Amino acid sequence: MNWLRNYTGKSYWFKMLISIGLLSIIVVILSSAVLFYKSRNTMLDMQHESNRKMLEQVSYNLSFTDRMLTNLITSTYMDLRTAYLLDSAQPEEFKLYSSIMSFEKLQSSVPLLHSVAVYNSRNGCYYYYSETKVLNCRDDGMDGRVDRYLMKADHVPKLQLVPIYYSDSDRRISHFSFFMYNSSSGNLIGTDNGALIFNIKPEWLFSNVSEMNRLTEYSDSHLLIIDGSGNIVNDLSGNGSWDRLRDRVETRRLNDGGTHSFIDDSDGIASLVTYVSAPQNKWTLVSVQPYDAVFRVIQEMKAFTLFAVAVILLLVAVSSTLLASRLYNPVSGVLRLIRKDPDLHEPAASARRDEFGVISTVLEKTMNEMRSLKQMQDSQSGILRGYYVRQLLMDNPHVSPFDAADKLYAGSGHGRRRYSICLFMLDDYAAFLNSHSPEDRRLYTFSIVNIMQEMISRSMHGDVVEVGGDRFVALLYDDNSGQSEPQLAERIHRFAAEVQQTIMTYYKLSLTAVFGDPAPDYAQIARLYRTVDNYAKYRFVHGKQSVIHPALVRQSEENQMESAAIELEKSWLLSIRTRSEEESASLLQELFSLIAKFRYEEMINTLLSLAAGAAHELRMAKGEGGAPDLRSVYKLILEKETIDDVRGLFAQLFHLSSEDGIDAASSETTKRQLLVATIRDIVESRYTDSALCLQSIADMVHLSSSYVGKQFRDETGLSVAKYITQVRMNHAADLLSQSEASVNRVMERVGFVNQSYFFKLFKQHFGLTPNEYKIQYAGKHE
């Protein structure tokens, strides 16, 4: 029993064994069944054909007898002596006997004739030859059976064998009568039409049938003859035992036609029945054979097939076991390896699943570990490449440009390349910071770097690094293969525009791109980066999502401050003093159009000076409290990313429509910032309170909830509720990763009471459930 214990617990082996065994068994059984039924049907067809030929032979014999009797009775009917017997109402005795004696020779020459008789319809007499009987006019020579038939028959068949039975109660056949007459009506009694009658011995037909049955190999076979009236001619028993079969044959003959074969088991004994119509006499010839005798060979074949199938199934069981064991060997080998390694073996999984389930679990675990290692390797490789790229950009004195370039482009001929830098800046970065959590910002940064790297790999070469929260640098290089600098600049311009469009399409984030002239040496990469970084200031002029290139920068830097700008500045300041609002707006628009053409430094200086002059004029016009705080104005100007934003700021700060002191927009801005700072402090100090919400905060600052919500959203881009959730999620993440507190305890400490809601929000923010986050990040801060 050791071999049996070896397979205990091997569910996959049993599945494989059962699958192979069942498939083999099904194939064997189906093929045997198909073979058996095909053989049975073939033999049935052969037996049907054999029976049909036998019945056709009998039918031919009957037809031949009919033709012979027809020729004989016709010649006899045309004889003058016969005619004398048919037509004479009072025949003379001498002629009568001489005519009757002519039948004696005919009877002796034809063995199947029992007697020859003439029926004279004129006098109702029968004339026939007999050695033993005395002639009697009313005697038909057949004990009155022919006369009885003629008296009852509405129509007497002409030139056909007509079976004559002993009596109505005794349906055994006495003989066959063969009639010849000249009338077309078929009715002889009571008419002027006489008939010549051949009375045929039935033994010739019965002997023929018996011989046919003897020639068949089945002793219980029967050949039945059904006449046109539905009587079985050769039912010698006369007890009607074949009547039910006769009725079924007649029904099938009417429905299916003249020749057919079927299996009849209505009497509890199965028989093969074949029937053929004999049109000469309107008879039906029926062959009845015992089913078991006919299909004895098939039954023997069936028994042999069952024995053969049993032997084959035994062989299938043995071969299936051997085949399953052979196929199972590789699986068994893998399981042995798994069980040898305690780190891979998982008893719990093994108890619940089959072998492939265990292997799949271990394989999945191994692949995850390999994937983690690969990601770690790639990440380390990416970190190292990013490190060396940053060394080239920043010109770190501790790492020489040659070493950094050699680490990045070892063996790739980096000394024969041209290097270009394309800087991407995230527009509206302050709003981006306010509207996204740190985790979201990290995901956006990771995605943007990957997309840029993928787009570089399509048609260029280079590396992408993030050099600040809002800046991404693409260090590009080509092999200096003869492409001119304008062509290279156009290529980089297309790349920058494609990146901008892709990031806007997928993430709805705006990027401004800046690139400079290429450098022929990796040692000049740091200088090139400083140049491009300087060019980035011109986003202030050309606006967000622009592509800034050296030609645009040179055009701006060649412009000098025009005297027209100085005159416009004086005119605008004068319009503030004189409170000419329409003139002030028009002059401000024209003045900013001129300032936009200056060099960056001149623009900033001019804008700061312009703000100082405007504040002075408002103070002179409205008093000491009529102008905004100049330091706040400077801060707001320097925070703006484009000159159009600054112009909008000027239009708000130095608006002249109010007669009541300082500008409303500046005041609103200051008050909103103060309100938002207060809300942030409240949320940070009371986020553990589960009742903290917009309404409770509005109650604390004595303002309406709609006003507080609008001011906070306008300043930060977030709703108060979303900000509260963000603060709570960040604190929950810190507690999960840095403490041993349970998830439920952390949930309560950050102000949540509904566990499912807390899990849903946490999964939305971090992509993990609290439990998964705790497992993944626990211990990282230890």
Please name the defining characteristics of this protein:
782 residues, alpha+beta, five-stranded antiparallel beta sheet, five-stranded mixed beta sheet, 14 strands
Overview of this structure, please?
The protein has 782 residues and is α+β, with helices and mostly antiparallel strands. It has 30 helices and 14 strands. The strands form 3 sheets. The chain has a 5-stranded antiparallel sheet. A 5-stranded mixed sheet has the order 11-12-10-13-14, with helices on both faces. Strands 6-9-8-7 form a 4-stranded antiparallel sheet. Strand 8 (271-278) and strand 9 (283-290) form a beta hairpin. The longest helix has 67 residues, at 11-77. The chain is rod-shaped. The two termini are 56 Å apart. Mean pLDDT is 76; it is low at 1-8, 346-352 and 657-666.
Give the strand order, joined by hyphens, for the main sheet: 2-1-5-4-3
Radius of gyration: 61 Å
Tell me the β content.
5-15%
Helix-strand makeup class: alpha+beta
Taking the sheet with the most strands, its summary is: 5 strands, antiparallel
Instruction: Give the mean pLDDT.
Output: 76
Number of strands: 14
Number of helices: 30
Distance between the termini: 56 Å
